[in-house]
Design a protein that fits this description.
The complex is a heterodimer of chains A (484) and B (168). Chain A has 11 helices and 12 strands. Chain A has 484 residues and is an alpha+beta fold. Chain A folds into 3 domains: 3-173, Beta-Lactamase (2-Layer Sandwich), CATH 3.30.450; 221-313, Orthogonal Bundle (Helix Hairpins), CATH 1.10.287; 327-481, Histidine kinase-like ATPase, C-terminal domain (Heat Shock Protein 90). Chain B has 168 residues and is α+β, with helices and mostly antiparallel strands. Chain B has one domain. In chain B, a hairpin with a 6-residue loop joins strand 3 and strand 4 (138-148). Classes of the chains: A alpha+beta (484), B alpha+beta (168). Strand 3 of chain A pairs antiparallel with strand 1 (36-38) of chain B.
């Protein structure tokens, strides 16, 4: 079941329960008030009748004739007088719908409407003089209230009973109940419709989130949720969008990594295949025919040089794998000594290319793995050499600087060679990438050097960047912590 | 199946909310029928003297005198000042005026006027005579004792609240 339907059902249930309870309490209270008013009116009417009867009776009781009579005669006179008093009181009363009865000495002496047989006897049980009892009951489909007073006259109880019709109260109760039912029906219908709309509106962002999640689950990582509210749902949508972006970025990275691996395998295969083809070709030629000595030597030289290239390739790949899996040990390296060593190492190849190398470095100490950093500079300088024309110059600069407020050392290797375009700069760190393949291969390169450089620098926590444009040379800058 | 149970439950709840309060009210109103209850005295009796006053308003002068004189069975006792309609000094003034007229007509032996040197002081007490049957109907009256300053003469006068001078 959808969340919004659950919300709707819960609201409707709570509302109906609340309305039912409130309606019950209100109607009940109203009915109680009506009943109290009815009882109060009935008691007032009984008081009036009682007062009138007792007043007349007072005169009889104190008359000389009555007092002088025998007990038996008194009782007879009392009964006769009560009947007469009842008639007189009824004649003088303004209440037309109220009946009253006079009960004395276990019998009714007067009844204003002849309905004394309907009066429940329990109305008089355990009454004491001065008390009043009441009873609500149903008679011929009408609700009536009996009120009785109790007085002691000549050691006999005298009850003045009045009967009032309170059917109107019950009619009002029934009408209120049906009106309440009508109201609850209308309110529930209207509220349900309203709550349906509100729940749809409130759960709309959740619906969008759900849809977007489904789309992402199906592989569409570009899905985002457009929810502008600032509430918890809005915050959730924001977090969802950020999560989706992170997943998307990660997927892109994974794709790039997979692509990079595939490219690596393809490049590796290609790099292996080229020398292997040459080696196999020359070897096949030599075993298939008798070659002159000079051509044999030429063929063997090819086989040797291509074999060396394969050896070089496997060595570099091993270094790459080794570096990725092992920790590096650092030691303090004096920059001036280090650069001097670099110059010494690269001097022969510089001379062969008729290139000059100049250095301008500020002295200092950096904590690096010396051997690996030699590899970094040899590769960078060798790359610069390959890109430079005979007579060119390669400059090595170094100075102390700061990165993010901390001491650092900046190296810079510049050449005036052929330079690279933006795409080449971006890909120069990839394994087996060679901007100028024919030239690199001719120089014995395998496209691993700059990947190795990038790996070594990243393992040292160094940063680097490349500035290059075709025909204007290349400048590689490296920043590493320390240098003090 | 689960859905059917849920929908049925919800519908049942709504039907209950629709019918139950009304049915409960009707049931309660029917259940209360036939119960005998005692009317609380507060709802039909105000203070006792107020009730007596209300009922006694019907009594004529003769009936009140019958109660006071015991011609009708009654119980006489001292009344509280607050039960009386007049203040004591007002009752004395009213009685004095009537006694003065009676004196002038020769029906009373003493001149109770305050202007004369045979000045009479007074003492007043309120009384009530309540009917012995219903203990409701009551006649209120004053008993005033006029006494000359030298204490050689004194007269006791009884007067209903309407100013009727009477004797037993």
């Amino acid at each position: 079941m959808k969340f919004r339907n659950k919300v709707l059902i819960m609201n409707v249930l709570l509302l109906s329960a609340g309305l039912g309870l409130v309606g019950y309490l209100m109607i009940r209270k109203n009915f109680e008030i009506l009943q109290r008013a009815g009882l109060s009116r009935a008691v007032v009417e009984n008081n009036l009748v009682q007062s009138s009867v007792e007043y007349d009776l007072l005169q009889v009781l104190n008359s000389t004739g009555y007092q002088e009579k025998e007990e038996q005669s008194r009782a007879w006179q009392m009964r006769r007088e009560l009947a007469e008093i009842g008639g007189r009181v009824k004649g003088s009363m303004m209440m037309t719908d109220t009946a009253f009865y006079i009960y004395y000495k276990s019998s009714y002496e007067y009844s204003s409407d002849g309905g004394e047989n309907r009066i429940p006897v329990r109305l008089f049980y355990n009454m004491r003089a001065g008390e009043k009892n009441y009873l609500v009951c149903e008679e011929e489909g009408r609700k009536v209230i009996y009120v009785t007073s109790c007085s002691l006259v000549g050691e006999q109880y005298l009850h003045i009973i009045s009967r009032s019709d309170i059917s109107e109260n019950y009619k009002v109760l029934t009408e209120q109940i049906w009106y309440f039912r009508l109201v609850i029906l209308v309110v529930l219908a209207a509220a349900s419709l309203l709550m349906l709309l509100v729940s749809r509106y409130l759960t709309r962002p959740l619906e969008l989130l759900n849809q977007a999640s489904s789309e992402i689950a199906r592989g569409d990582y570009s899905q985002r949720v457009n929810v502008s509210s600032q509430d918890e749902v809005g915050q959730l949508a924001g977090q969802f969008n950020r999560m989706a972006q992170a997943v998307s970025d990660h997927i892109v990275q994974l794709n790039e990594m997979v692509h990079s691996r595939e490219q690596f395998v393809a490049d590796f295969t290609h790099e292996i295949k080229t020398p292997m083809t040459a080696i196999i070709g020359y070897a096949d030629t030599m075993r298939s025919m008798e070659l002159p000595r000079q051509e044999q030597i030429l063929a063997l030289n090819y086989i040797f040089s291509e074999g060396k290239r394969l050896e070089n390739l496997s060595g570099r790949l091993f270094e790459l794998l080794y570096l990725k899996r092992t920790d590096i040990e650092r030691q303090p390296v004096h920059i001036s000594d280090f650069i001097a060593e670099i110059r010494e190492i690269t001097e022969p190849i510089m001379k062969r290319g008729k290139l000059s190398i100049t250095t301008d470095v500020e002295d200092g100490v950096i904590w690096v793995n010396r051997e690996l950093f030699v590899t970094v500079f040899v590769n960078v300088i060798d790359n610069a050499r390959k890109a430079s024309c005979p007579g060119g110059e390669i400059r090595i600069l170094g100075r102390r600087t700061e990165t993010e407020g901390e001491g650092a050392y900046e190296f810079s290797v510049e050449d005036d060679g052929i330079g690279m375009n933006e795409e080449e700069v971006k890909r120069m760190w990839d394994e087996f990438y060679m901007a100028d393949k024919s030239r690199s291969r001719k120089e014995g390169g395998a496209g691993i050097g700059m990947s190795l450089v990038a790996l070594i620098l990243s393992r040292h926590g160094a940063e680097w960047d490349v500035e290059s444009s075709p025909g204007h040379g290349t400048k590689i800058r490296i920043w590493i912590e320390g240098g003090e | 199946m689960k859905k059917i149970i849920l929908v049925s439950g919800v519908l049942l709840f709504l039907v209950c909310a629709f019918f139950l309060p009304g049915d409960l009210l009707l049931w309660q109103s029917r259940a209360e029928l036939g119960e005998v209850s005692t009317v609380s005295k507060e709802s039909y009796q105000s203070e006792a003297y107020a009730l007596a006053r209300e009922a006694s308003a019907r009594l004529s002068r003769e009936e009140k005198l019958s109660l006071v004189r015991g011609e009708w069975e009654s119980e006489i006792s001292e009344a509280e000042e607050f039960e009386m309609q007049l203040q004591g000094y007002e009752a004395v003034r009213m009685a004095r005026e009537q006694m003065q007229k009676m004196y002038e007509e020769g029906e009373f032996p003493a001149d109770l006027s305050e202007l004369y040197q045979n000045w009479y002081g007074w003492q007043v007490t309120p009384y009530k005579a309540v009917d012995a049957t219903f203990h409701t109907y009551t006649a209120y009256y004053w008993e005033i004792v006029f006494e000359r300053f030298d204490r050689k003469k004194s007269y006791t006068v009884r007067m209903l609240e309407d100013g009727t001078i009477f004797t037993y």
